[in-house]
Here is the input.
Amino acid sequence: EADIYQTPRYLVIGTGKKITLECSQTMGHDKMYWYQQDPGMELHLIHYSYGVNSTEKGDLSSESTVSRIRTEHFPLTLESARPSHTSQYLCASSEYEEGEAFFGQGTRLTVV
Amino acid sequence: EDKVVQSPLSLVVHEGDTVTLNCSYEVTNFRSLLWYKQEKKAPTFLFMLTSSGIEKKSGRLSSILDKKELFSILNITATQTGDSAVYLCAVEVSYFDSGNTPLVFGKGTRLSVIA
Here is the structure.
């Protein structure tokens, strides 16, 4: 059973606030990913990590940052939220780069 | 709790075969159903279905939604090795009180097409 959790599920926040979206997995996967996605649109990779202390930017430019201090934890931080950041953020993990990715339930972020 | 169940979890076929992937769902307020193909890091969008009984087609791929029976199928005809991927089904759920429409993903079907 895949266990990957994201919190919060929904967040409404004012412009300029700093926020951190949490993602944790209990499968011991080395590879973790953050995607940004709007309904009916492609999932865009914004960050990924191949292991502890390894982080890379993805295909879509993002003003967010990530950290990977522990295998199971891959938080995403926005230093100053803007309305353009309003979107759904999906976290995923996989055992191998081309293996099946397990997705969290997502965080729906609204910046007002 | 909203849930999306895909079957089979894994499938191996030969080139030229036709495959059908299944997705059933139980959600509170259905808004749409989406299919994605995931090969490497970023899944690619295939179809978005909102109306029952209307088939969407793109080349050898087609999909249809049955809102009465709460399921969708994805068909791939004349499969090729390039179709090998994980196919994800997701349901967009509408929460009227908050206005949020999160996606609920299934676990995916891993399709392997061998020459």
Observations:
- Chain A touches chain B through 28 residues (CB under 8 Å).
